[in-house]
Amino acid sequence: MKLFLPLLMALAASCSNGQSAKQMDPSQSEQSSALIEAAIPLGGRVTDAANIISAKQEAALADRLALLEKSTSHQMVVVTVNSLGGQDVADFTRNLANAWGIGRKGHHDGVVVLVAPNERKVRIAVGYGLERTLPDPLCKTIIEQNMLPRFKEANFYEGIEAGVDALIEGLKRTG
């Protein structure tokens, strides 16, 4: 774990309403989504491809996300990845969310929390239907105040859990 500590000191915070910093034509976006989906299959509400949380922690987090979905109908997933494959974190997260179909069709109410520890990136991507509920400044604050301090201490699960807890509180406040 000591290896990650210096790397995470500069972890990049990033939030999104689903739009990319770089606009791609639809065929490129579809190709990227398909490649990401093939590389990282959806493993449930928590997909820990980077192996940074234990099975017990993953199960507890998945249970919390299931309760959230049951009580609000909003879908949230957490994903960790070893690499963004050279893609911008915004593009990667958006393509992954689209490939997996996170959120209810027609409601655009999905949330993806992505952590790429090797590249020191974290992103909260919010579907258009939740932009007012979880605006970019709130997501940025959640990353900076709830997640990054724990990541800097190599406490990945605690950081993810704190971020998810804050997002859930935001979703429950508005129903």
From TrEMBL:
The keyword Transmembrane helix is annotated on this UniProt entry: no
Domain of life of the source: Bacteria
Domain annotation TPM: ranges: 46-169
Pfam families reported in the protein's UniProt record: TPM_phosphatase
Which InterPro entries does the UniProt entry name for this protein? TPM_dom
Gene3D superfamilies (UniProt xref): 3.10.310.50
The residues forming the signal peptide are 1-21
Q: Could you tell me the keywords of this UniProt record? A: Signal
PANTHER family, alphabetized: UPF0603 PROTEIN YGCG
According to UniProt, the name of this protein is: TPM domain-containing protein
